[in-house]
Each structure stands twice: as C-alpha cells, then as structure tokens.
Design a protein that fits this description.
With 186 residues, this protein is mostly helical. 78% of the residues lie in helices and 0% in strands. The protein has helices at 2-9, 15-31, 33-47, 49-67, 73-76, 79-88, 95-105, 107-114, 116-135, 140-147, 155-160, 163-175, 178-183. Helix 3 (33-47) runs antiparallel to helix 4 (49-67) and helix 7 (95-105) packs across helix 8 (107-114). It is elongated.
Length: 186
C-alpha cells in the first residue's frame, strides 16, 4: 500500500522523497501510541475497560474507514496528506484484506481506485467490533473495585506523582500500552 498511498497523497515530490513521506505517515500511528496509553489507560481506570475499548475501536475503525474517502493530492493539494497523516495517527491497517483486494481486482484497477476498498471494508469490521464490545462485561476485578468505591479518582497523579509508580509506568509505556496491561489483550 505504501507505493499507492505515496502516489495518491504525496505526488508532488520526487519518488524518493514521496516514499520517505509515506513511511513517516505510517510511523505517525506508532508515535502516538504512548499518548494513547496514557489517555485511554486513565479512561479505563475511571470508567472501566468495556467503554474504553468501545471508544478506542470506534476511533481506529472510523479512521481506517475514512481513508477510503479522502481526496488525493491532485484534487485537494496539501490537505490530502495532512488528512491522511491525521487519520493514520488513529488507525491500524488490515494487510490480508489489502492482499485479497489487490489479487481480485488486478494491479491496474487496484492502483487506480480499488485501493480504497480495504479501507471502506473496515466499516463492516467496525460495526461487528462495536457490537461485540457492547456485549462485553466489565472485568470482575474492576466491577468489584467500582462497587467498593476503590476506583482511582486521579489516576494520572497517582501514576506520575510517586517515583515508584512512575518507574512502572515508564516501563509499561516502553513495552505495551497501559490499557492492555490493565484490561487484558485487545
């Protein structure tokens, strides 16, 4: 997908620069992960994992879906790559769908217009994911803490205000998002 994204959203620069820009656009999604861990880890501490998972899947799914409808550089100029990078900062990519679409439609149609299909199909996956997330219950540990009034009132200051907790947070951010640590695997 990087060559197709480069041609559609970064077509003004030369090919080498275009490829660097597309790799930076993909990297943007990884760069914001520690911030997502802070924001959604705190949200999970306050309202629980069920609704936090729902919020994160909506953000990721809608961001992926909206890429299908972005204008290209030819039609929107610099706004196109800016919009792509903004959406990329919220999304993840589904590579098997891309491979299947590319094989089915052929290289010429894929490069021309069918590259949008995998992103549009994420709307279906989003709907299924939201439905599944709505059916989930909070973890028994969180439900018990909430019933006993022991949920965190200020998770950020509790996490960062004391060095012993801050060391654990830094380690967790370096290894995986805090939400996964608290709520289990996504």
């Amino acid at each position: 997908m990087s060559a197709i994204i480069a041609a559609n959203f970064f077509s003004a620069p030369d090919e080498s620069t275009r490829n660097i820009f597309v790799l930076l656009a993909f990297a943007a999604g990884f760069a914001v992960r520690p911030f997502g861990a802070l924001v959604f880890g705190r949200r999970g501490d306050m309202i629980g994992c069920k609704y936090t998972f729902l919020i994160t899947i909506l953000i990721m799914g809608l961001s992926t879906f909206l890429v299908a409808f972005l204008p290209t550089y030819k039609t929107a100029g610099i706004a196109a790559p800016i919009a792509l990078i903004a959406l990329r900062m919220f999304q993840g990519l589904a590579l098997m769908v891309i491979l299947g679409t590319r094989t089915y439609f052929g290289e010429e149609d894929f490069v021309d217009w069918a590259w949008r299909i995998p992103y549009a199909m994420s709307g279906i996956l989003l709907a299924v994911s939201v439905w599944i997330r709505l059916k989930l219950n909070e973890s028994p540990a969180f439900s018990k803490m909430k019933a006993e009034g022991k949920t965190s009132k200020a998770p950020l200051s509790e996490s960062f205000g004391q060095w012993k907790n801050l060391k654990i947070v830094i380690l967790a951010l370096a290894r995986k998002p805090a939400l996964r640590r608290k709520c289990g695997r996504l």
